[in-house]
Known about the structure:
6-stranded parallel beta sheet, UDP N-Acetylglucosamine Acyltransferase, domain 1, 8-stranded mixed beta sheet, mainly beta
Amino acid sequence: MNAPADPTLRIAPDVRLGSGVRLHGFVNLYGCEIGEDTGIGTFVEIQKGVKVGARCKVSSHSFLCEGVTLEDEVFIGHGVMFTNDLRPRACDDEGRPLGDGGWRCVPTLVRRGASIGSGSTILGGVVIGELAMVGAGSVVTRDVPPRATVAGNPARILNPCGKEAS
Length: 166
């Protein structure tokens, strides 16, 4: 990997960047894979084990944590947050701080061509279907079917399978 010379980019040596990847300032990438022709906006963090497909757009201020996979052509709006621990705790029952082994990573999959609106939160363990649309500010707590549009807190289906509402 040839890391760009921009001092605002924090790219660990174990990052795999596809050809044509565009990185904006103040990104933090480590242990992840970014597919070809993908754009990563300013102030984005992508953690170890994350896989971002080809021709994706990850907008500014978004966070992709360990366990997240984006297939090709996925759109991530500004300030989208992914989570990966369904029962987060800082300490064990005796009050000792939990280390790396003190939690269970729950994977999340965003299928090809899906779009996630700005300000959304995606809980660990969900699958967002192919070409699905998540409305801005939504909290996704369960799987989203392919081509469906969901919105709200918790996110609810507005039009299943992309059918127009009557």
